[in-house]
């Protein structure tokens, strides 16, 4: 296997692996990120900027006029130094001197123009005042120049070497021959011409090699060649290493860790798969993750090597047999787990280090949970939810995550073949059902989850009473039948059906469960009392037993039905999509949403293996947030899990939960069109910052002598305006980073103000961003 990297036409995965990924602030796209100044340079006023640009232009024209008309002769000295004197004598090579002069004039004019643009800050004028279409066209025209920028030093050295070689070869410069004349005897030039010819041919060759060596040293040709072939790029100090043991980016496709562990044959096989394009980014991340799990277990190395030899790029594929999604609609970087969601706007309200940069989400940010609030049509689903779901599905295929996406069928969170489990409530063709109790074995825990879903954001006393009532039914039923009741059986018990109670009592007596029978008798007695919570629970459960949901939520009580899926299975890399009912079943959808949120929180916090990142995506969490759900969101970070919730407005929540919900999540997104009431909650969450303000004061002008005062009096008489002096006071004051009014009225359509926090506590400022497939300056194509 060659020890060097392939040429420029390398496989896309090779170029992807070699891209630099420096550590950045939360939310910035890392692949191809180019660091800039941390603080904003002092802004130059428009008048000063335009005046300086015009002044530089006028000075440049004046200098050129003085030089061209012979008032300044110094600018011709380099031309006279670099051309032989014989060209300028009568009978000399006038044509060669004329060509050299014209070339020199063009170079001098270009240098003068560059100096004027540099000192006049023409580039800054272009960025500030040029229309957006012109700037985009200029960026496209300047793309080749940007691509050659890393090789500028090498190209200048090459041009310099070519120029020196031409001047020496044409005889314009003869000083370089002096050492050769000094080292050879005079007889070689007259009596031994062959010896002189051989000597000077060797001398010419050595001189050319010396010239090339000097040009290569001055131009850094070695680094340029490595960069051109993909081995260079950023200096090693800026290259990204997510873990101390991961190799440098230019070595990743060679699998150096496998070679160091004594598996060179397997490393060669995977390297060929990478370079020949048979191994994708999902395959690379999946195999690398398995390797990190087995490398510390010597007994598992042989099994790993056998799997790689047998299957190559398909080793340790996802249980579904899928190695990639059929279609990708967003830009992903699985090596960092990021998905690009847009770009920060170049706006003075944004932190300078974020302006114009691409923004991305990853599990480190989603682990703090994300809340997006915006009216319908603001882009929550298309520009935020779908890219995140797609990214989590890719990470599930690579063995890094498990995702549950919940939304209406019309939300189109992804195609059916992109998920392992698809549950369509109310659709008889659904191949899976939902476990009403999330695989919980303890009756009290199951009763608490079900009470949370059925009661919702009622008073805490009502929730506790509902959990107690459900526990008095679930415990005896499980003791009698070794399972929990289906939704229809549960409704009969909550309705206080004498037949259902009698049947359950007989089953308990037959099983000898007399302690559970006492709970059942207590529930039967309470059901006869006025104001019993069981009637409320029966009414809520009745919403789940409508004909549209026939066959769902029956668990093991319905033989031959679709297998129930339990959210306790999220310790495996599963992709789950749940379509909620619509059109007249909104209340049932709300109950199911609360149930899923409660089951997810209980399931992921109770996992023994938390190596997989578990995520719940609720496309519409309206009426699903309860006090217990808010408390559960705070526990997800420690369980390597997170939730993405979207709301149309915070007014859909009880007032006591609005501030608590916004404060419990680490990532907050205020979409365009939020109300001022919603904006007030976000403004409080983002707090205040110190800003500099200017206060201008105008005072009557009483300075000067009699003449000056008389003139001011005449001007006041004719204009009616008194002469004043202007004083400016600069002070630092605390202001809201984004006020409620700005969030409601100054966020353009398709944009959002978002703040992101990582699980390590790194918090980013609120940033105005353009959501969608936007591309920032600091991102790679």
TrEMBL record:
It comes from the Bacteria. The keyword Aminoacyl-tRNA synthetase does not apply. The chain crosses the membrane at residues 49-71, 103-120, 154-176, 196-221. GO terms for molecular function: ATP binding. Keywords: ATP-binding, Membrane, Nucleotide-binding, Transmembrane, Transmembrane helix. InterPro entries: P-loop_NTPase (IPR027417). This is ATP-binding protein. It comes from Streptomyces durbertensis.
């Amino acid at each position: 296997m060659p020890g060097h990297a392939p040429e420029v036409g390398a496989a896309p995965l090779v170029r992807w692996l070699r891209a630099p990924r420096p550590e950045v602030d939360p939310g910035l796209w890392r692949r191809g990120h180019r660091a800039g100044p941390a603080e904003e340079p002092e802004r130059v006023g428009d008048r000063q900027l335009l005046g300086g640009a015009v002044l530089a232009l006028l000075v440049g024209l004046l200098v050129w006029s003085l030089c061209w008309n012979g008032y300044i002769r110094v600018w011709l000295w380099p031309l006279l130094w670099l051309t032989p004197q014989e060209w300028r004598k009568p009978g000399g090579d006038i044509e060669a001197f004329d060509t050299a002069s014209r070339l020199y004039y063009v170079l001098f004019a270009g240098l003068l123009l560059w100096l004027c643009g540099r000192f006049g800050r023409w580039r800054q004028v272009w960025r500030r005042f040029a229309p957006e279409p012109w700037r985009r066209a200029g960026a496209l025209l300047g793309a080749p120049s940007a691509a050659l920028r890393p090789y500028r030093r090498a190209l200048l050295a090459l041009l310099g070497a070519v120029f020196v070689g031409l001047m020496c070869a044409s005889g314009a410069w003869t000083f370089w021959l002096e050492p050769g004349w000094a080292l050879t005897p005079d007889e070689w030039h007259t009596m031994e011409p062959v010896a002189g010819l051989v000597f000077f041919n060797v001398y010419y060759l050595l001189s050319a090699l010396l010239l090339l060596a000097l040009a290569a040293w001055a131009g850094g040709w070695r680094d340029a060649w490595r960069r051109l072939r993909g081995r260079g790029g950023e200096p090693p100090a800026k290259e990204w290493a997510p873990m101390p043991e991961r190799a440098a980016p230019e070595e990743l496709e060679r699998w150096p860790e496998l070679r160091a562990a004594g598996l060179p044959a397997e490393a060669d096989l995977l390297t060929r798969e990478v370079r020949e394009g048979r191994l994708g980014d999902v395959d690379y991340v999946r195999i690398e993750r398995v390797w990190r799990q087995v490398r510390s277990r010597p007994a598992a190395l042989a099994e790993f090597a056998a799997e790689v030899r047998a299957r190559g790029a398909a080793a340790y594929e996802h249980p579904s047999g899928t190695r990639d999604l059929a279609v990708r609609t967003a830009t992903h970087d699985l090596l960092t787990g990021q998905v690009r969601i847009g770009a920060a706007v170049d706006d003075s309200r944004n932190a300078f280090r974020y302006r114009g940069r691409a923004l991305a989400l990853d599990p480190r940010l989603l682990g703090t949970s994300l809340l997006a609030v915006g009216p319908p049509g603001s882009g929550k689903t298309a520009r935020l939810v779908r890219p995140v779901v797609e990214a989590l599905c890719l990470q599930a295929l690579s063995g890094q995550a498990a995702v549950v996406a919940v939304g209406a069928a019309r939300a189109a969170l992804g195609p059916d073949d992109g998920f392992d489990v698809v549950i369509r409530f109310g659709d008889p063709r659904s191949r899976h059902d939902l476990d009403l109790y999330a695989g919980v074995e303890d009756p009290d825990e199951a009763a608490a989850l079900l009470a949370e879903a059925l009661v919702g954001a009622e008073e805490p006393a009502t929730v506790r009473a509902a959990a107690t009532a459900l526990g008095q039914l679930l415990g005896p039923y499980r003791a009698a039948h070794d399972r929990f009741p289906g939704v229809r059986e549960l409704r009969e018990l909550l309705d206080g059906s004498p037949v259902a109670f009698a049947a359950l009592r007989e089953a308990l007596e037959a099983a000898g469960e007399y302690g559970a029978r006492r709970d059942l008798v207590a529930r039967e007695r309470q059901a006869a009392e006025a104001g019993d919570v069981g009637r409320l629970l029966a009414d809520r459960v009745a919403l789940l037993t409508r004909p549209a949901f026939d066959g769902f939520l029956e668990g093991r009580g319905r033989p031959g039905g679709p297998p129930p899926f339990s959210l306790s299975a999220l310790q495996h890399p599963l992709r789950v999509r749940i379509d909620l009912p619509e059109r007249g079943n909104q209340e049932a959808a709300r109950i199911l949403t609360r149930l899923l949120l409660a089951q997810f929180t209980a399931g992921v916090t109770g996992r023994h293996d938390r190596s997989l990142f578990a995520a719940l995506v609720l496309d519409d969490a309206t009426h699903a947030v309860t006090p217990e759900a808010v408390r559960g969101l705070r526990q997800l970070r420690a369980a390597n899990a997170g939730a993405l919730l979207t709301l149309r407005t915070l007014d859909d929540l009880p007032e006591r939960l609005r501030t608590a919900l916004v404060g419990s999540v680490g990532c907050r997104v205020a979409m365009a069109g939020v109300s001022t009431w919603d904006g007030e909650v976000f403004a409080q969450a983002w707090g205040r910052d110190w800003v500099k303000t200017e206060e201008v004061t105008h005072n009557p002008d009483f300075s000067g002598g009699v003449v000056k005062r008389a003139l001011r009096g005449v001007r006041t008489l004719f204009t009616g305006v008194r002469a004043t002096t202007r004083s400016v006071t600069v002070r630092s004051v605390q202001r809201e980073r984004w006020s409620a009014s700005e969030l409601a009225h100054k966020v353009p359509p398709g944009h959002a103000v978002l703040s992101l926090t990582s699980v390590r506590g790194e918090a980013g400022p609120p940033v105005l961003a353009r959501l969608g497939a936007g591309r920032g300056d600091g991102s790679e194509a």
